[in-house]
Amino acid sequence: MKIITILLLCCFCFSVFSQHNSVNDKLVIAHRGASGYLPEHSMAAKAMSYAMGADYIEQDVVMSKDGQLLILHDHYLDRVTNVAEVYPNKKRSDGRYYAIDFTLAEIQSLLMTEGFVVKNGKQEAIYPNRFPLWKSKFTVHTLADEIELIQGLNKSTGKQVGIYPEIKSPAFHLQQGKDISLAVLNELKRFGYDNLDDKIFVQSFDPTELKRIKQHLMPKLNMELKLVQLIAMTSWQETLVYHNGTSTPYNYDWMLETNAMEKIATYANGIGPWKPMLINTKMNQQKPKSNGLLEAAHQAGLVVHPYTFRADINRIPKYAQNFDELLHIYYYDIGVDGIFTDFPDKAVQFLQKNKDKRH
Ligand code: G3P
Ligand code: CA
Q1: Mind listing the pLDDT tens digit for each residue in 64-112?
Q2: What is the SS3 assignment for 148-176?
Q3: Which Gene3D superfamilies did the record assign (predicted)?
């Protein structure tokens, strides 16, 4: 998308949406940008989330064949680009198109769109009521492009919006010969992020890699950033452990025990759990209560930033009547410190309406 379009969009958003939130110290983290409105991780979605008043904007980072840091949620290209049409012969035996098999120039020649799945040979949008597939023009950009956008907006607006990069599948990248964590940290340092006071959280699902970052990479680079341990269900196979040519899914079960929080606090500053992990799910459709994980995290000095809050039809859990009630349950009844949301405008407006509340 042309930079002029992004800037026009910013001007439009500034006139329509509210200003920076940061009320009650509760954070709004724009999940892949304002991805409820524009294709995830597009520059336009990032500019829109900035103008909506997000405190932090999220970057999922993967690596290209030529070692460039790309903003993409998957280390595959096929869910959000036309790679299958442009490079039909570059898929691996599992049928997927891996970003790491393509150069940045090849990737930037592709069109990017809303996430889709292919059913019976036809593309179907994962979120049918979001931005339409293949409309307008979006492309994949780099971590440097995005930091320049956010830092540029910080300069021109006088605000201080933070970044929230996630190092995606570091074990996979290492197994493919690429040290993505080292590359990300070097890039962050180049842009001036190097100490605990900087407006940045670095997140990963991989505890082994987070420990390596904390204990080896950051000291070696003379930097110290806040780290967040993302927590997955083991069944998602989010993190693979490679050993002697085979891989097995990392077992996250220990992280859901309250006594895990002290262990995590030895190498991280916060946790990013899937939001149901914080509540007592046995209560079914009644208003849920904390299951104790949040209190244990706070006791250990960790901030708690659950994911992902979506206002789309059928994405609001049955125990909440609407999106505002869902936000109330997590921000105030349970007491989280921030949330990842595809709809940053709604969370900013909710916090402004409730700015006198405390938890
Ligand atoms: O990183 C927080 C949240 O984004 C985790 O889920 O899969 O969207 O990266 P995912
Ligand atoms: Ca993420």
Answers
A1: 999 999 999 999 999 999 999 999 999 999 999 999 999 999 999 999 9
A2: HHHHHHHHHHCCCCEEEEEECCHHHHHHC
A3: Phosphatidylinositol (PI) phosphodiesterase
Identity of the residue numbered 233: M
pTM for this entry = 0.94
Residue type, 118: V
Nearest atom (ligand 1) to Cα of 272? 2
DSSP 321: S
Query: What beta strand segments (E) does the chain contain?
Result: 27-30, 56-63, 69-71, 116-119, 122-125, 162-167, 201-204, 226-231, 240-243, 246-249, 270-273, 303-304, 338-341
Quick count: other Cβ atoms within 10 Å of Cβ 94?
7
User: How many beta carbons lie within 10 A of that of residue 244, not counting itself?
Assistant: 5
CA distance 216 to 43: 33
Q: How far is the CA of 165 from the centre of ligand 1 (A)?
A: 10
Query: Which numbered atom of ligand 1 lies nearest the CA of 73?
Result: 9
Cα–Cα distances in angstroms (integers) from residue 124 to residues 11, 45, 117, 130, in the given order: 32, 21, 5, 12
Kindly state if the Cβ of 203 falls inside 6 Å of ligand 1: yes
Ligand 1 atom index nearest CA of 305: 2
Strands 56-63 and 69-71, how do they pair?
antiparallel
- Using CA positions, which residue lies closest to atom 5 of ligand 1? 307
- The whole-angstrom separation of Cα 216 and Cα 5 is 42
- What digits encode the pLDDT tens for the residues 240-284? 999 988 999 999 999 998 899 999 999 999 999 999 999 997 766
CA distance 348 to 30: 10
Cβ within 8 Å of residue 338, ≥6 positions away: 26, 27, 28, 29, 55, 56, 303, 304, 305
Domain annotation for the chain: domains and CATH numbers:
24-77+140-353 (3.20.20.190)
